[in-house]
């Protein structure tokens, strides 16, 4: 059974605190409790990128990475969101990361379903994109459970080679 999750968006203030490694400040300003995974070094790079992004492109704030929240357990289990608002072609790209303590429980699938559902509800979104390293078997296995189509490859400065998958919404 897929867990019931929602993505809780964070404020620019909380993102900045997370980017700066100020866990106490981030926890104080977050709308939900943040665990050590979210406030720790494993997530710092994504929070740094998103904190900078919302200063440069404030309209991305409601779209970007937030806390993946388990509605039943009332606990943060990871992070999920889009890389930004839809581009000029109506495309959004997903990103998610599950706390190692919560992996192999269906949370990545639940995050992808939530992101896909929101994309389908947004009139300006036409395509959902996921980019995955060719050796990331768990993510490849997940994406194969949906009707994504391979649509090329790209080089990511942080992650290296990635295969591009897209699905119309």
Structural description of this entry:
This protein is an alpha+beta fold. It has a single domain, classed as Gcn5-related N-acetyltransferase (GNAT) (Aminopeptidase). The protein contains 6 helices and 7 strands, in the order βααααβββαβαββ. It has helices spanning 12-19, 23-29, 36-39, 41-56, 107-121, 137-143, and strands at residues 5-8, 66-70, 75-82, 91-98, 127-132, 149-156, 160-168. It has a 7-stranded mixed beta sheet with strand order 1-2-3-4-5-7-6, with helices on one face. A hairpin with a 4-residue loop joins strand 2 (66-70) and strand 3. Helix 1 packs antiparallel against helix 2 (23-29) and helix 1 (12-19) packs across helix 4 (41-56). The chain is globular, with a radius of gyration of 15 Å.
CATH C-level: Alpha Beta
Low-confidence stretches: none
DSSP, total strands: 7
How would you describe the shape? Answer: globular
What is the third-level CATH name, the topology?
Answer: Aminopeptidase
Query: Can you list the strand order of the major beta sheet?
Result: 1-2-3-4-5-7-6
- Taken together, the total number of domains comes to 1
Assess the beta-strand content as a share of residues: 25-35%
Total helices: the number is 6
Instruction: Give the termini distance in whole angstroms.
Output: 24 Å
Question: Sheet bearing the most strands, described?
Answer: 7 strands, mixed
Radius of gyration: 15 Å
CATH architecture label: 3-Layer(aba) Sandwich
Instruction: Let me know the CATH homologous superfamily.
Output: Gcn5-related N-acetyltransferase (GNAT)
């Amino acid at each position: 059974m897929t867990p019931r999750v929602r993505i809780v968006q964070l404020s620019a203030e909380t993102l900045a605190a997370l980017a700066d490694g100020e866990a106490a400040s981030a926890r104080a300003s977050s709308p939900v409790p943040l665990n050590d995974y979210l406030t720790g070094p494993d997530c710092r790079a994504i929070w740094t990128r998103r904190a900078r992004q919302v200063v440069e492109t404030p309209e991305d704030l409601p779209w970007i990475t937030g806390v993946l929240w388990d509605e039943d357990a009332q606990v943060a289990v990871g992070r999920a969101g889009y890389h930004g608002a839809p581009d000029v072609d109506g495309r959004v790209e997903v990103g998610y990361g599950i706390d190692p303590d919560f992996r192999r429980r269906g949370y990545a699938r639940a995050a992808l379903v939530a992101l896909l559902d929101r994309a389908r509800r947004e009139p300006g979104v036409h395509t959902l994109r996921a980019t995955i390293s060719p050796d990331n078997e768990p993510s490849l296995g997940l994406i194969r459970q949906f009707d994504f189509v391979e649509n090329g490859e790209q080089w990511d400065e942080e992650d290296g080679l990635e295969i591009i998958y897209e699905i119309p919404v």
